[in-house]
Amino acid sequence: MSKKSTNLSEKAGVVVFARIVTTVIDLAIVIATIQILSKTDFAIIGYLLMIHEVARNLATLGFPDSVFYFFERVSGSAKRAFVNQTTLILLGTALIAGIFILLVGYFAPSFLTEWSPDSIEQVQHLLPFMALVAVFEIPTWPVTNILLALDRQKESAWYEMITSLLTFLLLVGPLALGYALDIAVYGLVAYGLIRFIGSWVWMRVVLPEGKLSDSEISVRRQVNFSLPLGLSALVNKINRYVDKFVVSILLPVTAYAEYTIGAQEVPIIRVIPFAVGSVLISRYVEFQLESKKEELLELWYKGVQKVSLLVVPLTILSIIIASDLIAIIAESEGTSYRNAVLPFQIYNLIVLVRVTHYGSILQAFGDTRGVFYLSINLVVANLILSIPLTMLYGINGTALGTLIANLYNWYITLRRIGTHMELPARKVLPFPYYLKVLGVSVLTAVPIWYGRYILISEANSVLGLLISIITYLLLFSILGTLLKVITSDDWSQLKNWLQLKFLSRN
């Protein structure tokens, strides 16, 4: 393996590892709040966090991503100047995000028509504090990318993990100690302030000296680069909440709480293609600029195959353990989320198509308009399908509408990528290998799913979950190896990754 390939592999390992750890922490926040709070309070905190995330993505746009592009074009004091410039831009957009959150609070009674007056009043009381969190947090959002651009991958990983852990401690901590929801939101404000100060100190340490006037990149140039990608990312983020907005408007607060649980792609699986794609995009660009079409296609296929081997079986596993998983995570005495099981299973079928970061290959061809068009297309399709299906079938219909919209947009995406690669849509992905992995995954799942309820009591969720996971992974490993879906090279790479060798290198 070449040194360049090794560096890419190590960088991918660090990024994936950090994303998985932070995702586990984020998942722990959800589990803890479900267990501690009533359905109504959980719906309220879920709504607050949803509005905050939408506002944050509205404000950050593509400015954090611009770090990767421009850092290679500046040096010395200009690096700090560029970071200062980016921070000031984001501080301005953070204020706009704060105003947006305040407006949502003002119009909350018009949006949440099916919610109780007390719930709406609490949302309106707490949203101004979420606006304050946004003002502190948004200017720090490029820090992770800055550290990666400076080849400080380990520091980037630590930064992500520390900030996620801080969120957990200051949000869940007060709730676990018996304090009201208000105190937990005040804890988030403290998190935002600590993150802002800590990030400022961290950047002063790692960046070379420089003044804002040293910047070699104009604001206009940075905005022109960042805006198209930022709008695409924003629309994609909004799309994650379109169906939830539909449920919040058309159905009662308890249904919103159930759908919040059910409408979740297993986060640990979801981060894999994004993390790998963020590492490979530079190679895609390199091959495209050098007109190395065969090398580009080979790297693209290889990336898809490696991600498929992880994402597809884990997704099928998440579907067959859905009932036990939700029972353990969400249910408690007197509180049931059984209605969330089917939406969860439907929703996670979407993950089967997330075997690569499709936007990375479009960006390599300079097709930022295509990225934006596909984002808009998905939001519109999701909205058109979710409303009638929600009215007909409740939260099960909402999940089904989201699935159909994603499958339709996936086909459009493959066609667009195919025009750049000069390939028909059916050859954009290595479908023979993908279908083989999918077939082995489903074949493995059938006896596990059936045996779970024949051999173990349905009420024994913990034992059922553990046995299902262990037997599924064991059986898939055996069948995958025998059918040559999993190669000796795959086992070797998995061993190195599990040993975290990428973290031990200098």
From TrEMBL:
Lyase is among the record's keywords: no
This protein's UniProt keywords: Cell membrane, Membrane, Transmembrane, Transmembrane helix
Localization, UniProt: Cell membrane
Topology in the lipid bilayer: Multi-pass membrane protein
Keyword Repeat: no
Transmembrane segments annotated in the record for this chain: 12-38, 82-107, 127-150, 157-177, 183-203, 307-330, 342-359, 371-387, 393-412, 433-450, 462-486
InterPro entries in the record: Poly_Biosynth_Transport (IPR050833), Polysacc_synth (IPR002797)
Primary subcellular site in the record, as a coarse category: membrane
Pfam families for this protein: Polysacc_synt
Protein name: Oligosaccharide flippase family protein
Organism whose genome encodes this protein: Rhodohalobacter sulfatireducens
